[in-house]
Amino acid sequence: MKWMLRHLPLTFLAIATLCPAADTGHDWPQFGFDVASSSASPDPTGITAANATSLVRHQVTLNGTVDASAIYLHGVTVKGAKHNVFFVTTLFGKTIAIDADQAAVLWEFTPAQYATWDGTRQITNSTPVADPDRLHIYAAAPDGAIRKLAIEDGHEVWSTPITLLPAREKMASPLKVFRSHVIAVTAGYIGDRPPYQGHVAILNAADGKLLHVWNSLCSDRAVLLQPDNCPATQSAIWGRAGAVIDPTTGNIFVATGNGPWDGKTNWADALIELDPDATKMLGNYTPSNNEALRARDLDMGSASPALLGGGYIAQGGKDRLIRVININAIAGTEPHENDDPPSVPTASGGMQLPATAVWHHNTDTWLFAADAGGTAAWTFKDGKLSPVWKNATGGTSPVVAGGLLYVYDPRGGLHIYDAETGTEAAKLEAGGGHWNSPIVVDGRIALPEGGSRGQAAANSVLNIWTLPAK
């Protein structure tokens, strides 16, 4: 491992350390910042529209490609000393801890079976999650197992498989931790290669015991399914935010992809609300044109649900719509498929694949979304989304911090906008990628480069931007 210095000014070459953060003492413990995956942090960052162009990029070479997001914890103990740390997981399941101040790798955890996946199509795009105890993180690997790792040195505490079909069922989405449970979801690999079933798995965070499974196909069977246990297949849960959790009730929201739907035990192309233990369905919705969506491979659940507040959800899909769904209107186990809710076109009229961001600012609620051809902002009021601004620059999952919107263009470049006006404050140099998305915390921006398409076996970098030294 080496710290790549080519982007540092000469004043940085004399000391192998980054500029101290403008604000300290904050965390970004999971994809999307919080359990609802709002992707909006209320914490000060020290980065403003006025100083964004002065940010300095540092790069850490990673032993593997990260096609996901980083997480961050401040002031945690690693090898007996306090560190501010970024954590990432590579495509083939290697989890890496990186010192945010020294731009240096602190430890790597490599699963024992790593060599059997390295260079194959069996990958994970999952983002790890930190335990609230700030002593452990949880990470996924291509063998279909969730692992609890010690922050101190990266050693494995426990490992639990959440699929019996790791070569078919992929963990593409980030993990969540809530009320001592680890929540994970499964999808399929590119090309919808059956057999696989999307499901929600609930693990005990303390010992890794698999507590409950909710299957989106054959939902009457609360077990990990063998290939011949369920005649239905597909219905991936693959949205970039994974399971989204209401922090007040603990209820779990997921959206499913293409597959069979019968409103009884098969729930493909649907929005689903589960209780906190994933033992029962509390609500459901599928569009009235469910069969047409399936026939055209237009997953309604290509994006994760976004909790807007006030009992409403924004649900983006491959059919280039963002629907506004009233949670009360879809309550119950009976199927809800007849009444199509109001919707708006996606940012550029493209498929909604990245996660969205929900920002509660003053008295307003904002929704931000990007697709392959653009980025857009809406305000939400009285059950409706109203457009405010949009542009023709595409991106991955946006995040909001300090009143600024950060959007990574996977063709290269990190764009920083004024969140309310859409005015671009800066475009930071960055290489290409795929699902990668930034986090902004403690005066730092972190963004992995590289993707799974043609780059799976290569090393990658973690970009870290800081304000220049004074």
- Number of separate strands: 36
Placed side by side, the strands forming the largest sheet appear as: 1-3-36-35-34
Structural class: mainly beta
Gap from first CA to last CA: 29 Å
Strand content: 35-45%
Largest sheet: 5 strands, antiparallel
The number of helical segments is 3
Percentage of residues assigned to helices? under 10%
Mean pLDDT equals: 92
Task: Report the uncertain regions.
Answer: 1-16
Shape: globular
Radius of gyration, in angstroms, nearest whole number: 21 Å
How is the topology of this model organized?
Blueprint: E1 3-4, H1 10-13, E2 40-41, E3 56-62, E4 71-78, E5 81-89, E6 95-99, E7 104-109, H2 114-117, E8 129-130, E9 136-140, E10 145-150, E11 156-161, E12 169-170, E13 176-178, E14 181-185, E15 187-188, E16 199-204, E17 210-215, E18 244-245, E19 252-255, E20 271-274, E21 281-285, H3 290-295, E22 306-309, E23 312-316, E24 321-326, E25 343-345, E26 357-361, E27 364-371, E28 374-381, E29 384-391, E30 399-401, E31 404-408, E32 414-418, E33 424-428, E34 439-441, E35 444-448, E36 460-466
